[in-house]
Amino acid sequence: MNKKIFVIFTDLDGTLLDHETYSYEGASKVLQIIEKESIPLVLSSSKTRFEIEKIREKLGLNTPFISENGAAVFFPKEMASFLPSEALEEEKYCVVKMGVDYEYICEFEKEIKREVNIRGFCEMDIEEIARLTGLEYEDAKLAKKREFTEPFLIEKEEDLLFLKKEAAKRGLKITKGGRFYHLVGAGQDKGKALLVTKKVYEKIFHSKVTSICAGDSENDYEMLKVCDKAVLIPKPDGRYSDISLPGLIYARKPGSRGWGETIGEILETAN
Predict the structure, then answer these.
(1) Which among 257, 214, 218, 213 is positioned nearest to 241, based on CA atoms?
(2) Helix (H, G, I), strand (E, B) or coil at 180
(3) What pTM was computed for the model?
(4) For the CA atoms of the chain, what is the radius of gyration?
């Protein structure tokens, strides 16, 4: 029997990275196995490309990555010949974009604030973003450099329904992450970005690949829904996001420890 070919897709905050410290220490042993076995690890996050680049560098990755909740997939240029026709060549990457421009979202936010009290990154300074996220100042600067989506806080949860309806009229939708709600393009999600990336890897490997995904929040739902082996990481208090899918694997520990333990078990028993 042929050995399975895996591609791992993972959320970052609260999943591969611990919620409070942003450490991946609990997953370090499994990350070493992944590197040794040359299993592609694709970071898929609400973070900006600039934040993800910094994490990729720490992890020593040269794989594609998915930014801002599926708004874009950034592929290394050496993968160009395997990419779909809509991929755009930039200075450092070839990019498949599925999100809308950030300026468009900020304009909507400014208009809707007359009716709903929300506060997003586009009106926050770096100090406020650092305080709300727990990020260091330099990392908060990278979080503010957005291209496609807007994290925001809302004063009254009961205003969400109205906000969702108004966003839909503008081709936008709202997702929920670990710390913030996010205004994003209606045509994007992490699941679509995963399928684009998986198809590229199947061309590269000339074979079907098995996707393993890990996430902890509602904005990971679409990714978990379309992957072959889906892992839900609990919150730091042990609760799970309200996600129910056939075959969903529930990690027993939060953050990087749960990630490392569960992904390790999947790889160990797979073949």
Answers:
(1) 218
(2) coil
(3) 0.93
(4) 18
